[in-house]
């Protein structure tokens, strides 16, 4: 305990930065320090704690188990200090500071990136750090203020605000339908080309139902299976077959007439669970003014229903 009491905020902040960037030289450049000073600070921490915090080699710096554990607590300390500073600043009317956002790759490209200029214009003192990945991100471990998550929400350690309901459409291009005809029911899709998304859990099933009837699951095959939704959407636009995707992905092509909604009298989905597009943040963390500002901005821009769903039957 005595050794921990001697750790400085500066040394903890450097450790967190090294864990984020994986490089002494990069952290030194960002902090305006020499790499030797950064390395010496970490060595002093290791001597004080009598344990190795980092593995060093010529290609990267990787945390030991002890380094990872200390990094988790150091991030929490940095966040608490940042929250305290924000609390003092929030008497000012203008939100300010860095907001670290994590979003799925394609959704971020389609529905976050186009709004960043307006967000910056309206709130010039905000600094947005947008990381786009389809990997699972734990905000408690990865120093993220705000996650955009798509799907069913079940994590009780997180709070969420719904940005939009996720709706699905079965789509095909006008050219494909002209060549091959329009199916009358889901069973008829087995006679058509279907473009199926395949993720870590395998090929997605497509679910259909009418009215209050039970959902029916179908597994289809076709000329293209893949793990990139944009590629499969483009293939559908090009006339390769049917695709089943959320409206935030295919809505623009539907509005432009490049795709047509098929079997519109059926509800369609790729899951039996209701799905939302949500802004998510940890239960344990106070929602700061800057993060609340970003969430409110996205809610305003997306609208109700979301703009990609407006004008659809």
List keywords for this structure.
313 residues, alpha+beta, Arc Repressor Mutant, subunit A, D-Maltodextrin-Binding Protein, domain 2, 3 domains, five-stranded mixed sheet, three-stranded antiparallel sheet, 11 helices, 16 strands, WH_DNA-bd_sf, LysR-type_TF_proteobact-type, LysR family transcriptional regulator, DNA-binding transcription factor activity, DNA binding
Terminal Cα separation, in Å? 64 Å
**CATH topology heading of the largest domain:** D-Maltodextrin-Binding Protein, domain 2
| Rg for CA atoms | 24 Å
Structural class: alpha+beta
Number of domains: 3
Question: What's this model, at a glance?
Answer:
Residues 7-64 form the HTH lysR-type domain. By secondary structure, the chain is of the alpha+beta class. It contains 11 helices and 16 strands.
Description of the structure:
One of its GO terms (molecular function) is DNA binding. Belongs to the LysR transcriptional regulatory family. It comes from Rouxiella aceris. This is LysR family transcriptional regulator. Residues 7-64 form the HTH lysR-type domain. The protein is α+β, with helices and mostly antiparallel strands and 313 residues long. The chain folds into three domains: 2-85, Arc Repressor Mutant, subunit A, CATH 1.10.10.10; 90-166 and 275-302, Periplasmic binding protein-like II (D-Maltodextrin-Binding Protein, domain 2, 3-Layer(aba) Sandwich), CATH 3.40.190.10; 168-269, D-Maltodextrin-Binding Protein, domain 2, CATH 3.40.190.290. It is 38% helix and 23% strand. The protein contains eleven helices and 16 strands. The protein has a five-stranded mixed sheet with strand order 4-3-5-16-6. A three-stranded antiparallel sheet has the order 13-7-14. It has a three-stranded mixed sheet with strand order 9-8-12. Strand 8 and strand 9 form a beta hairpin. Helix 3 (24-31) packs across helix 4 (35-49). It is elongated and about 75 Å long.
């Amino acid at each position: 305990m005595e050794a921990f009491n001697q750790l400085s905020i500066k040394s903890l902040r450097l450790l967190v930065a090294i864990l984020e960037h994986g490089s002494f030289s990069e952290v030194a450049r960002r902090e305006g320090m020499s790499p030797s000073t950064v390395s010496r600070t970490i060595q002093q921490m290791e001597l004080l704690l009598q344990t190795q915090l980092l593995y060093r080699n010529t290609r990267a710096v990787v945390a030991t188990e002890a380094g990872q554990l200390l990094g988790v607590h150091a991030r929490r300390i940095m966040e608490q200090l940042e929250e305290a500073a924000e609390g003092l600043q929030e008497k000012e009317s203008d939100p300010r500071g860095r907001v670290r956002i994590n979003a799925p790759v394609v959704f971020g490209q389609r529905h976050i990136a186009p709004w960043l200029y307006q967000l910056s214009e309206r709130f010039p003192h905000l600094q947005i750090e947008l990381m786009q990945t389809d990997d699972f991100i734990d905000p408690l471990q990865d120093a993220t203020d705000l996650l955009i998550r798509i799907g069913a929400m079940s994590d009780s350690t997180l709070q969420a605000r719904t940005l939009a309901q996720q709706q699905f459409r079965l789509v095909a291009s006008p050219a494909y339908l002209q060549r091959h005809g329009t199916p009358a029911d889901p069973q008829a899709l087995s006679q058509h080309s279907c473009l199926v998304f395949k993720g870590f859990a395998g090929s997605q099933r497509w679910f259909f139902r009418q009215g209050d009837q039970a959902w029916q699951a179908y597994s289809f095959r076709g000329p293209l299976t893949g793990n990139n939704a944009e590629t499969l959407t483009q293939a559908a636009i090009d006339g390769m077959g049917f695709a089943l995707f959320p409206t935030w992905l295919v809505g623009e092509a539907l509005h432009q007439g490049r795709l047509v909604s098929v079997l519109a009298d059926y509800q369609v989905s790729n899951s039996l669970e209701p799905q939302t597009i949500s802004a998510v943040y940890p239960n344990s963390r106070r929602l700061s003014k800057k993060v609340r500002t970003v969430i409110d901005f996205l809610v305003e821009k997306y609208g109700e229903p979301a703009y990609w769903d407006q004008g659809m039957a």
